[in-house]
Design a protein that fits this description.
2 copies of one chain form a homodimer. By secondary structure, chain A is of the alpha+beta class. Chain A contains 5 helices and 10 strands. In chain A, strands 1, 2, 3, 4, 5, 6, 7, 8, 9 and 10 form a 10-stranded mixed sheet that branches. Chain A is globular, with a radius of gyration of 19 Å.
């Protein structure tokens, strides 16, 4: 079974099941287990961190339930808290794996760029009050596109088989006080989007020149990239299969 | 002194000070009192209810503080929880009263109109899953514009000197799954926007014909208007002086 999910990550310790912490995966598994009467384990496309949101997470699980697939979202939602919702359910193709089968994922990182903080956006955007040169940020963004070793944009000490990822698209869009960074890639290293966003902010402040980004990528040096921005600006928008 | 305010009303019992309940007015007064060392009383332009938000509430208060007016937002914000923020401060004109001096106020009511609920919008929009005829709603909206006795669109038993209000503008805008109702009037009766929004939903369902709205207004009969929609969809957008 394949599920489309939206959640507000504010009150969770991320997607992945942990001891002694409430996670999306655990709450979802309990809800599905309760309605099917089976012991359910779900696999998510992206392991979002604490405070990170999803508008289009995808998960899969095995079940023998007789609940018709079109009724499943309503049934599961009736057991979920209101900060997690199933937005669609489908019978998954044979061998489908939410993460491994994914061709690409799209994340957004939202910056609230205005003089004073926004209470209404406090959990959904990173507040940054200094003026940003968006044109410079857009120029820098182009350097990320393509297949690169993104070691410089990975939390240090993360275990990873290969640090090479293919970025298909990186767009920056200013909508009044919001700066929305949207990035599509075939996969993401740990904290990759938050470090890329932090690096783009440095470019917007002219602390890093747009052309310097190519050399930071080549260096593989985490120290040369920008800060890891906080989780609340990050949202898993959709997964492409 | 005149303040521009934004707040997330989710965790408050509305604007107005109450015994035994946390309100925006009280929290704001405590913050300003703490930084000025005076006993501060603020007056708000709109008395938003529990769960109602403001992107542009205006408040005024008297002070002898020596804190420069341009530093005041930062000083007050340093004492406010992150669901309330001052977004601007000005020396108010002589005799300024945030509510009485207001020429008009603008509210939005947001409906999330999609098959499944949205966790990310659960505190900021009213979830309504059935299809709505937006063209019919737009036609009905025109009947509200103008000076009318809005008794049919007021919570029963509200004390009021005159139930006549002038609606300058009522617009309905569909943006993907969101339906945004924006209404500007010289003043609002108690629950007026939430009852107008509830009536427009009935029109969208063809339970009330667009042309019937004029007769509901004339009747002054609260029973004939729609339901009072829940508070989380409502937001005080701005106050016009």
């Amino acid at each position: 079974m394949k599920l489309l999910l939206e959640y507000d990550g504010t009150n969770y310790h991320g997607w992945q099941r942990q001891k002694n912490s409430r996670t999306i995966q655990e709450v979802l598994e309990e809800a599905i287990s309760a309605i099917t009467g089976e012991k359910i384990r779900v696999t998510g496309a992206g392991r979002t961190d604490a405070g990170v949101h999803a508008a289009g997470q995808v998960a899969n699980f095995k079940t023998n339930t007789r609940i018709p697939v079109e009724k499943l979202p309503y049934a599961i939602n009736s057991r979920l808290p209101d900060d997690i919702a199933v937005k669609g359910a489908w019978v998954a193709p044979e061998g489908f794996h939410a993460r491994i089968s994914a061709k690409a994922k799209v994340y957004s990182y939202t910056i609230y760029n205005a003089p004073f903080p926004s209470p209404l956006l406090r959990n959904y955007a990173y507040f940054f009050p200094l003026p940003l040169d968006v044109d410079a940020m857009k120029e820098a963004a182009n350097h990320f596109v393509g297949a690169h070793d993104f070691s410089a944009f990975m939390a240090t000490g993360s275990p990873v088989k290969s640090p090479v990822r293919q970025v298909n698209r990186l767009e920056i869009d200013r909508r009044q006080d919001l700066l929305i960074i949207e990035i599509e890639a075939n996969g993401f290293l740990y904290n990759m989007v938050r470090i890329i966003a932090g690096t783009l902010v440095e470019v917007g402040l002219h602390k890093i020149e747009p052309g310097e980004v190519a050399s930071i990528i080549r260096s593989g040096d985490r120290e040369r990239a920008g800060k890891t921005l906080p989780p609340q600006g990050l949202c898993l928008l959709r997964v492409i299969y």
